[in-house]
Amino acid sequence: MAPVDSGAAARERDRGLQRLRGWTVGCVAAAAGLVGLVAVLAAGTFPGRAIAGAASSVGASDQPAQPSDSSGFQSGDDQPAAPPSGFFGGGGGSPSVASGGS
Predict the structure, then answer these.
(1) Does the predicted model carry a pTM greater than 0.85?
(2) Which tens digits make up the pLDDT trace of 2-52?
(3) Inter-residue contact 82 to 76 (CB < 8 Å)
């Protein structure tokens, strides 16, 4: 039986760990790049909405526009609309649950 060189086994292990570290860093960089790409695509796809008064008041005065209501509460015009009833726009019936058991 030949003697086992423990130094060779340790070097082989270290090379394997170094290769694994390289793959890990590469995958993290690729994931970050994909997140950035999706963020850029989403920002271009969903540009948001413009405030109606902002376009007309640009250049009108040097002071920023201030709300007429000093309480900080905005009117109900900015509230989102209620969602339709049900997932697909309303079924009209009462919800039911069916067991998948025996």
Answers:
(1) no
(2) 666 778 999 999 999 999 999 999 999 999 999 999 999 988 888 777 777
(3) no
Residue type for position 60: A
Those residues whose C-beta lies under 8 Å from the C-beta of residue 74, and which sit 6 or more positions away, are 67
Distance between CA atoms of residues 98 and 10, nearest Å: 59
Distance CA 29, CA 31 (A): 5
Residue 65, C-beta contacts closer than 8 angstroms, at least 6 positions apart: 53, 57
User: What is the residue extent of each domain of the chain?
Assistant: 8-45
Would you call 33 exposed, middle or buried from its count of C-beta atoms within 10 A (0-12, 13-18, 19+)?
exposed
